[in-house]
Amino acid sequence: MINTTTMKKTILILYFLLLGSISWAQDFDKNLASARTAYSAGKLEDARFAMEQMLRDLDIAIGNEIMKMLPTKLGALEYIVKNDNVTGGSGSITGLFVHREYGASPKSGNIEVMNNSPMISSLSAMLSSPIMGGMMRDENQKQIKVQGYKSLLTKNVNSDTGKTGYELQVPMNNTLLTLRMDDTNEGEITSLANSIPLAKIAQIAQ
Fold it and tell me: Can you list the alpha helix ranges (DSSP code H) found in the chain?
């Protein structure tokens, strides 16, 4: 059963967060009206559905704020504006998802931010447990710290080009940031990761 006080508080917070965007605010207002009508009529499932739609809109609003925090250049690679992607998935397995691409083959990279994914818990557990961490025998993987966050760095060698690429996964509470880059080295990818405001992203993504 939906608690009236909680619902009112949630609606108020969502409203102010989405107020800055006209298009999202219009969708928000529509779903807000539907939630209120359904709740007043005792149709709790319909009210829940409308609120889930509102939360998806919120995920997208938050995702766009995170996108503003991501670098427009990854080393010498420019970001590809048309490939920026933000989706919201509150009420499903994962929540918000942010994707930005840089450069093009043979040297390219991307940054992804997602929250509430089941893989975050398993990755965090592996990085936090000495036993599980010690069981990691892949010579291409190592644990490092980035801005105080325990992270997993994976080296990938392209069998066709012989070039080395890296994937860095940084779990931050319920949020996972993944940085990938082709034709790079450990020093470059960790330096690039340190230029990303991880704490601010983790705070807004929660």
Answer: 4-18, 22-40, 44-69, 118-128, 130-134, 186-194, 198-205
